[in-house]
Amino acid sequence: MIDLIANINGKINGFVWGLPMLVLLVGTGILMTLLTKVFQISHFGYWMKHTLGSIFTDKHITKHTGEDDQSISQFQSLCTALAATIGTGNIVGVASALLFGGPGSIFWMWIVAFFGMMTNYSENVLGIYYRRKNPNGEWCGGAMYYLRDGLGAKQGMKQIGALLATLFAIFCLLASFGIGNMSQINSIAGNMKSAFGIPNLVTGIVLMVFAGLVILGGIKRIASVTEKLVPFMAIFYIIGALVICICNADQIGPAFAAIFKGAFAMKAVGGGIVGSGIKLALTWGMKRGVFSNEAGLGSSVMVHSSSNVKEPVRQGMWGIFEVFADTIVVCSLTALTVLTSGLVDLETGAVVSSAEGSALVGEAFATVFGKAGPAFIAVAILLFAFSTVLGWSHYGTKAFEYLFGSGAIVVYRVIFIVFILGGATMSLDLAWDLSDTFNGLMAIPNLIGVLSLSPVVYQITKNYVDRKIHGIDEKPMLSAFPDIQKLQEQALDDSE
Hints:
By secondary structure, the protein is mainly alpha-helical. It has 23 helices and two strands. It has a two-stranded antiparallel sheet. It is globular and about 60 Å long. It starts with a helix and ends with a helix.
């Protein structure tokens, strides 16, 4: 049965992740980059000031909402989104890209991230603009809502919008058990066993209990945990990776040279071909880039939409920072750690170690930290992957709610928690392949929505830039719905 599932999934995966999908993903990012006048660079200082900078200067960014308010703070929404994106893809995914696509895959991972910043920005802008509140007072936003209420509002598109919204919710629901659960737990269990000798079943049971205590508490409890966990785990890992890079500083230049040579299959000094060729480098770089930062999947917008933010563009800028932090910072450090540690022949791009996945990164850490290196990576994966499970549990919850209503949410949460045990004992290859497939299936309806509503993103962005940067006095674009627009305008006036 498992072989049959793997065979069917392999065929679907090959179709989903073919050249057309990669073109659609990057093409959407290019279009949104052009429409927003290269916002990620032209307003780099502005969005950094209003994201990372605002954490230290604006108390409203980190201030918790009251018990009667079911929304979460902007910082909590970022941490929950980062909890879902900074996962095994940053360690196992990068190692797999280097192993199968060569150093050049990292260049294409950067390209995906650069344009993905504006795809994620656009998703968040649309998510806030088309969000609504459920009977419990929680904000509900995401691709299913801007497909149904945005694309569906266009002439003759009501049924198509509703159909794509339903398909997205179904794919997201399935993906939450793949990328958001089984593949993450599988990586934790494998590393706990190899580093500390803990049986997979024991790891699965412990994680199931801890996850249950958090997930059953809903978005506010998840956000409360992730806002403490994410900064700690990110700093913990970044410091460790920086130590490796500093100790191997003389190899940083050659590592970057191997990345750029491998990206275009240029000949190395020794006459060999760097990496596995441009096709493999491009494909693995893009697949692992998307798996890592999730730009284009329409996933993180579901938690960003739970924020107490008023301006769609403000939350869009958090989306840019999310991709920047995940791929440009964390994934790049993982790649440089492996490339500078001597485990990759920088002339040919071939991995000279027999280790795979997280073990490859653990071996790189062992070159400086000794036997503590693999243990360091095991703990990092535990933190990264478990936080991803928490974040994705919310994504699956919102998809389930869209399909079956808010009254049945507890059913999904219980099933999701039980699946953690299965993930601990599942085949790693099958878990990752399923994750790739569901990622691609989610992206298709979401990207259709982003492309069809790109004029709306342009208008909202122009409106914000005119008002906030150029000082032009005009009515803000805060919501597609008059009643919510009015309430948000009043709240915006009160906050100012």
